[in-house]
Amino acid sequence: MSERTGAGKRAERPVRITVDGESVEGIEGQSIAGVLLGSGRISWRETAVAGKPRGLFCGIGVCFDCLVTVDGVPDVRACQRRACDGDEVSSQ
């Protein structure tokens, strides 16, 4: 039987977002959390009371630990929002 030669594969297109003033590259279709993790960031906000670091925890939008501000809109769940080329993301 012959080998499959890339049938069904999608070309990976890069997306570039700005995170706290730093340019970060991801792949089209990744969540913002995926792009952040891929860039080596494990936390991107702090708790209001104790100042403890938070990042991705549940990955399904339930825990709200991954909140970021995207294009001026606060409280966006990074695990639920796909990264779009040109997004301006800031920590909360």
Compact summary:
The protein has 92 residues and is mainly beta. It is 8% helix and 30% strand.
* Distance linking N and C termini: 54 Å
Class, according to the CATH hierarchy?
A: Alpha Beta
Beta strands, count: 7
The biggest beta sheet is recorded as:
5 strands, mixed
- In CATH, the topology is named Ubiquitin-like (UB roll)
If you had to describe this structure to a student in words, what would you say it looks like?
With 92 residues, this protein is mainly beta. The protein has one domain: 2Fe-2S iron-sulphur cluster binding domain, sarcosine oxidase, alpha subunit, N-terminal domain (Ubiquitin-like (UB roll), Roll). 8% of the residues lie in helices and 30% in strands. It contains 1 helix and 7 strands. It has one helix at residues 32-38; strands at 14-19, 22-27, 45-46, 53-54, 67-70, 73-77, 88-90.
Based on the model shown, name its key terms.
Ubiquitin-like (UB roll), two-stranded antiparallel ribbon, 2Fe-2S_ferredoxin-like_sf, 30% strand
Could you give the topology of this structure?
Elements: E1 14-19, E2 22-27, H1 32-38, E3 45-46, E4 53-54, E5 67-70, E6 73-77, E7 88-90
Parallel strand pairs: 1-7
Antiparallel strand pairs: 1-2, 3-4, 5-6, 5-7
